[in-house]
Amino acid sequence: MELTLDSVLADAVNRLATAAKDRRHPMHTPVVGTADGDLRIMVLREATPDLATLRFHTDLRSPKCGLIGSGAPVSVLAYDPEARIQLRMRGEGRIESQGPIADAAWERATASSRRCYLAEIGPSGLLEAAGSAIPDHLLHRAPTIDETFPGRANFAVLLVEVRSLDWLHLTHEGGIRARFTRTSAAASWQQTWLAP
């Protein structure tokens, strides 16, 4: 790749689009951070071609859903150790549990992916002993699609509007770094090279 700011941005877009479709891609499960300093690994479900939106699925009962609500800062960190490329993104997150985006995401989800939304106690809820909150009859098998319907009430989508992207290629010569920022997904990127 010819090293230009445009090619670096295209590289980031391509890596994230590929990661959303390929569960074996190293960026398929980035670290997502919220304003309270909490971090968690989440599965990247979609990265739009212009990086306007990253989409993740989450349990509506999760504390992060209450924190993010209809708008709050969210950060995303993805790393490809073989390529030695790190992507740090910041933006505005929002939770959608109703409407066409959440409905379409639920419809595309497989029965085994929907199973976690059938948990009897939501994320961070207290348990009497170590284990899962998945109902016993589903612990060792994937549910049928019909069995997953009650989980829809717990299903939500986390959408992150990416407003800054920091691309870093780690090398033995010191690395290469670029930053891309914008005020909203509709705005043009402002781009610059940075010292690694």
UniProtKB/TrEMBL annotation:
SUPFAM superfamilies (UniProt xref): FMN-binding split barrel (SSF50475)
Pfam families: Pyridox_oxase_2 (PF12766)
Pyridoxamine 5'-phosphate oxidase Alr4036 family FMN-binding domain boundaries: 37-95
InterPro entries (UniProt xref): Pyridox_Oxase_Alr4036_FMN-bd, Split_barrel_FMN-bd
Name assigned to this protein: Pyridoxamine 5'-phosphate oxidase family protein
Species of origin: Novosphingobium jiangmenense
